[in-house]
Amino acid sequence: MSPDLVTPGSARSAAEVNEQIRALWLRAGGSLSAQEREQYELLVVEWAAAVRGRVVKAA
Questions:
Q1: What is the pLDDT, as a whole number, of residue 56?
Q2: pTM (2 decimals)?
């Protein structure tokens, strides 16, 4: 999945996505496979969208 396909204004909170990122790193033991890295990158894009959405609402 391309980062362009991630829906702006994530339905999940930044905290929820951050928890998934942490869990991914724990499962991977600190070294990500190619597939895990792709998942990580998508999660980071989703997390950033959630953070931006929260900042825009606060403004």
A1: 64
A2: 0.73
